[in-house]
Amino acid sequence: MNITLITVGKIKEKYLRDAIDEYRKRLSRYCKLDIVEIQDGKTPDNASLKEEESIKDKEGEGILKYVKDNMYVVALDLKGKMLSSEELSDFVKDLGIKGESNMAFVIGGSLGLSSAVLNRANYKLCFSKMTFPHQLMRVILLEQIYRGFRIMKGEPYHK
User: Fold this and answer.
1) Residue 157 domain-assigned?
2) Bind-site residues
3) Which of 45, 97, 147, 150 lies at a 20 to 30 A Cα distance from 25?
């Protein structure tokens, strides 16, 4: 299976880069993983809704450049469906069985995802009603993908 993370913003913090590298190494046993970073738009203080939409649209254009026609796109969205770790594992496994071997998980910037990206998404996934920094969300997502593969293979992992 090929998994691509398309994310807005660069990871500056070493401890987050180290965690991402660790999960990248662990996942190499189960899938091919690519991580694409799109430049985030700078949001001025007191930005208007129109300015925020413009920033999201620009980020969305950058994201969509990396979305291929054959990709099954999962957008992380607060209005998406919440799944348990086991349900996420089954979801990924079922996609593989159906021949969807190219998956893209999309993490937006601080303003969220553009409507164009959400419209292209095949599935919208919500991790929590809480808001997480998009840099940290990358680590959380990779951990859950790794956990999902461990569950799929019947291998032990912390509960």
Assistant:
1) no
2) 76, 108, 127-132
3) 97
